[in-house]
Amino acid sequence: MKIALDVMGGDNAPYSIIDGGLDALKEDNEIYIFFVGPKETIEEHIASKNFSGISGRYEIIDAQDVITNDDKPVEAVRVKKESSLVKAVTLVKSGLADSVVTAGNTGAFMAAGFFVLGRIKGISRPALAPIFPAQGGRHTVVLDIGANMDATSENLVQYAKMGSIYAEAVFRIEKPKVGLLNIGVEEGKGNEVTKAAYELLKNETDINFIGNVEAREVPMGAADVIVCDGFVGNVMLKFMEGLASSIFSTLKEELTAGFFRKLGALTLKPAFNGFKKKMDYSEHGGAPLLGVKGACVKSHGSSDAKAIKNAILKQGKGMVKEGVLKKFNKGI
Amino acid sequence: MKIALDVMGGDNAPYSIIDGGLDALKEDNEIYIFFVGPKETIEEHIASKNFSGISGRYEIIDAQDVITNDDKPVEAVRVKKESSLVKAVTLVKSGLADSVVTAGNTGAFMAAGFFVLGRIKGISRPALAPIFPAQGGRHTVVLDIGANMDATSENLVQYAKMGSIYAEAVFRIEKPKVGLLNIGVEEGKGNEVTKAAYELLKNETDINFIGNVEAREVPMGAADVIVCDGFVGNVMLKFMEGLASSIFSTLKEELTAGFFRKLGALTLKPAFNGFKKKMDYSEHGGAPLLGVKGACVKSHGSSDAKAIKNAILKQGKGMVKEGVLKKFNKGI
Questions:
Q1: Of residues A230, A235, A255, nearest to B268 (C-beta)
Q2: What is the ipTM for the molecules in this complex?
Q3: Sequence-ordered list of residues with C-beta below 8 angstroms from that of A97, at least 6 positions apart, any chain
Q4: Looking at the predicted structure, is the pLDDT value of residue B164 above 90?
C-alpha cells in the first residue's frame, strides 16, 4: 500500500508531518510512503530520527515549491506544478501511489483532485467527508464540510449516495441510515435547497434515506451519514472543535477551584483522558475527498504527528483496502 | 411592566408555563402578567398553587384555540384568531402588554410578529437572537437562528445593525464587536451570500465590524454579536444543545465506571453543577424576535418553568427596560 504524503501542508509542516509518516511506517509494515517535499530537509530529519526497520519502505520525492493557505486554490494548482501538494496528487494520478494525504490548503487540494485526477462519473462536485464521533462509541460520516460552498439539491443527492457507499465500506454495515441535516424533522422544513433535496432523496431507492435530522441529533448518532451543504458542515465541524475545547477549559476551571476539588479531579484523570480521546478528532484521522478518481485524504490544518499517522493508517489505507473507489464506480 | 404569556406554547404547556409565570411574579414584584389560554385550566392551576402576594398582579385572558407545531404558520395566524399565541401578541399591539413570551410554534410567532405588530422601518426580515454562553462568563448574541431560512446579504447587514444595538443595550457595552460567521477569516471566503455581506458590512460605519469569525471562535467569545443565515444559526444552536448533552452523558459513563471514580465524582458534584449551569440555555431565558414593532420573546420549545421565568425576567422585562425598541427606531 503506497501513500503519497504532502510534507509541506498544515500548520506543523514539515517536521510533525514527517514524524507522522515515520510513525505510520513503524506501526504498520504494509505501508510504503512517498515523502513529498524539499529533499534535503526530509532526508536530514529522517536521518536525525535514526529509525530502524523502515529502510526500503519509503522514498523521497523532491518538491521545492509550496502552496500556502494564502494561495488562490485553482491558480496555485495551475501555476505551482512543482509544489509538494500537486506532486503528491500526481503520484496517485500516475498510479505510483494508491492514495494521498495532506494537511495543506483545502481548496487547492480540492482543485488538484478536480483537475489532476478528475471527477467520478455522475458526480458534479466532490465532497469532504470526515467522521464525527457520536454517543456510545458510534460514528457518523458528515458530508460536505467545505469542498463546495453553494451546494444545489442535486449535489446533496450525490453526497447521499457517496456517503452511503463510504459508510457501508468503512463501518461495515449494510444500508447505512442517511439523514438530511435540517432545522426540523418534518417534510417541508428548511431552506430552498434542503426542501428540494428532500423531494429528490425520498425517491432514491438505492439509499436508506431516513428523512430530516436536526443538528441536535447528530452527536447522538441518529444517522450513519449526514448530508449537508459545505458551508453548514464546515460551521458544524468547527463549532464542535471550539465547543469541546471551551467545555474542557470551563470544566478545568471548575475542577481546580479549591483544594478538595483538585484532589477529586486527580482521581478522575483517567476518566477525563478516556473522555478526551472520544472527542479527539485526531483519533479519526483525516477526511476523504469523495468524488474524485483517486483516494484523497485531507487532514486537519493543525494536525500533529498522531493525526497524520491516523490519516495514513485509517483513511489513506482504509479507503484503498475497502475498495471504496471501485464501489463508487459501480454504485453511482 | 406588563408581560403577555402564551400559556399553551411549548412541550410542557400549560402547567410548566403557568408555573414559570408564577415564579416570575414571586421573584419580581415589578412584573404584571397576562396569562393567555383556556381560562378554567389557568384558574384551577393557579388556585391549586395557593401562592400569596401575587393577587392584583396578574390577569387571565381567555383563549380557547391553540396553534400547534404542526400548524402552518401564516395560515394558523390568519385563521386561529382565538389562539393563545395570536391573542398574546395582540395584547402588545393594543398597548396593554409591554412584551410577549411564548414557547410555541416559532414560525407562527414570527408570522404573528410580522402581520399583527408589523416590521420596524428599514428591516425587511425579523431575526431570532438568542444569547450563546461563551468562555470566561462572556456572552454572544447570535442572529438569526431560524426566523428566515434563506437570508440575503442585505438581511445579514440588517441583522448586524439590530444585533449591535441589542448587545449594546443588554450587555451594556459600547460599540459591540460584530462578526460575520464564515468558514475562514480571510476576506473572500465563504458562500455567495457571506461574500456579498462582507463587502457591505465593511462599509458600514455605525457598527464595529470585526470581519469573518469561524464557528470555532464562537464559544471562545470572539465577538459580542455573530451574524448568520437562519438555517446555519439554527444548526449551530441545536448542535450546541446536542453536543453538550452528549458530552455530559459520555462524561457520566466515564466517571461512574468503577468504585474509585464514583467516589471522585461525588466530591466534584458542585463543580459539575457549576459547569452545567454555565452551559444551560434555560439560564439565559428566551430569544428576542428582533425587527418587529413590539418586544417579542421566543422561549425554547422544551422550556420548563425555570426557562419561562428567565425568559420573562431577563428578556421580556430586559428588552423593555433597556428601551431596545426605541433604540432600533433611532439607529436603523
A1: A255
A2: 0.89
A3: A2, A3, A4, A34, A88, A91
A4: yes
Residues of chain B contacting A271 with CB distance shorter than 8 Å: 251, 254-255, 257, 261, 264
Interface test with B, best of A149, A153, A155, A240 (most B CBs within 10 A): A149
Domain A127-282 is found in CATH 3.40.718.10: yes
- Residue B14: asked if its preceding bond is cis (omega within 30°), the reply is yes
Nearest CA in chain A to B182: A235
Report the topology of domain B2-123+291-331: Isopropylmalate Dehydrogenase (3.40.718)
The share of chain B scoring above pLDDT 90, in percent, equals 70
Cα–Cα distances in angstroms (integers) from residue B230 to residues A146, A199, B101, B233, B236, in the given order? 19, 21, 20, 5, 10
**Residue ranges in chain A modelled with pLDDT below 50:** none
- The overall average pLDDT reported for chain B is 91
Hey, of A234, A235, A260, A267, which one would you mutate to test binding to chain B, going by the most B CBs within 10 A of its CB?
A235
Start-end of CATH 3.40.718.10 domains in chain B: 2-123+291-331, 124-285
Strands (E), A236-325: 287-290, 295-298
Q: What percent of chain A has pLDDT over 70?
A: 91
pLDDT tier, B141 (very low <50, low <70, confident <90, very high otherwise): very high
For A235-268, write each residue's pLDDT tens digit.
999 998 888 888 777 777 766 767 766 766 666 6
Yes or no, beta carbons of B260 and A267 under 8 Å apart: yes
Looking at residue B288, what DSSP letter applies?
A: E
Q: Give the CATH fold of the B124-285 domain.
A: Isopropylmalate Dehydrogenase (3.40.718)
